[in-house]
Amino acid sequence: MNQPIRRVALFCFLLIASLLVSSNYLQVVNADSYKARNGNLRNIYDAFAYPRGQILTADGTVIAQSAPSGGILYKYQRQYPLKSAYANVTGYKSINYGATDIESILDGYLKGTDSSESVANFMDTLTGKSKKGGDVQLTLQNSVQQVAIKALGTKVGSVVALDPTTGAILAMYSNPSFDPNGIASNDNDTSSAAGKVLEADKNKPNLNHATGENYPPGSVFKIVTAAAALESGKFTETGDTGGPQGALTWPGSSTQLINENNESCRGTDLKTALAQSCNSIYGYVADKVGAPTMAEYAQKFGFNNPGLKIPLTVAQSNFPSAASLGSDSVALAQDSVGQNGTQVTPLQAAMIAAAVANGGVIMQPYLVDKETAPNGHVTYKGSDHQHELSQAMQPATAATLDDMMQNVVANGTAAPDAVPNVQMGAKTGTAQQGDKNNPLAWFVCYGTANGKKVAVAVMIKTSDPNLRDTISGAGYAGPVAAAVLKAALGVK
To answer: Is 352 within 8 Å of 248 (Cβ atoms)?
Structure first.
């Protein structure tokens, strides 16, 4: 073979080799990245080519499902039978807008591509069964959720109920909510119109306000302050704190920490002050406990935790660090009665109440009860993953706080919302939001009955200026919390 022919042959060999290398790189090494590109319409076609798994409540109510659409490219369409009742939890699956919340987080499982379903999918392929996704059952109980929705009514706010002993979330609802069926429609005009309305709504109905937004907790935070005070060794439940019954003042400062309606506290001990929700006593106590201890106990109760997932991502509840507070006694006192820089999600508020109900232990809250592959095999159980999130306080402290919070129901601000035949502890809150906004109404509680234990948090927002002077935790949020507590405990 002469030299020119050898060169041509070598060149052709190199061309073939490079073609093989590049095609393998594209089809094997880089396949996933190309498949995941937003512009890859095959992913969208495939997602609606077969039934996606159902999302159900713990008591078997279907809250998300796929139904034949009669289309050619998109054969199935996502439907939400209960409309707005679970929209902030399930989210939506849309051709135009993608997926959100549970539909997004568990997308792989619901469409059947999760690795845990590979064996089931392989066996279905061998037996000729049609492709479908896996089902996801949540911990939410429809019987409790519907009571929460009805009790909240037209009020703007959030409700959370959970089992303090396991962390299972039994109800989670925020108003305003939205109907995800429009945005999930396979009809482009319908979906686009619904999406534009949702994006333009300043009330953010597509946001789960129970987990995705922070609010000043007001006097609900006094539970944390009481725990820090008791465990500091400086105060007891019924001993005189030495704090002022009237407004709390500081030398050289014109700032005052006043009680609701400028009232004077009936007593200066922690128990009486909690029942009456005295700012002056708890602000004074926090100052004596000190910023480092207050910041430490806020963290023990779950504040400043950036990584909480249920599996929905939960916004970080905040309490200022000891370093940022420094020697600012005014700020520390305000923060320790749930104002100033203290911010909390309604879920976190429920976790505070749950800590008292569960002997000082906060369990990791969770929403997913189980995941079931198309062949009926359960591949995930939420109960197998229950674990402690933190030890907020010692059992003896929790027992003391339980006595104090039961006293809030028996002799304090929560008395109007007591539930008969339920051993119940509670704390009310009225959180100021500046001169231009109405206060927030808060109510957190827990109760035991029928062998069950449940913790509930309710937050209510109002905008009518004529209601400003009448807003209270007991009056606005308390009735909602009591109704949900009764439903969750099975009390008539």
So the answer is: no
Residue 139, classified by CB atoms within 10 Å of its CB into exposed (0-12), middle (13-18) or buried (19+), is: buried
Query: Could you confirm whether 472 is annotated as catalytic?
Result: no
Residue whose entry in the numeric block shows the structure tokens 């002799």: 411
Q: Tokens for 136?
A: 């996801």
Active-site pick, 174, 219, 317, 336: 219
Query: Model confidence over 39-98: pLDDT tens digits?
Result: 555 667 677 888 999 999 999 999 999 999 887 788 999 999 999 999 999 999 999 999
* The pair of three-digit structure tokens given for residue 459, joined into one six-digit string: 């937050």
CA distance 378 to 371: 6
> How many CB atoms neighbour CB 30 within 10 A?
12
Measured CA to CA in angstroms, residue 360 lies from 133, 401, 453 at distances of 40, 10, 14
Q: Tell me the C-alpha to C-alpha distance, in Å, between residue 397 and each of 223, 288, 414.
A: 11, 18, 21
Kindly list the domain boundaries of the chain, sorted by start residue. Answer: 212-368+386-489
φ, ψ (nearest 5 deg) of residue 169: -85, 120
Fold (topology level) of 212-368+386-489:
Beta-lactamase (3.40.710)
SS3 state at 371: strand
Q: Is 313 exposed, middle or buried (0-12, 13-18, 19+ CB in 10 A)?
A: middle
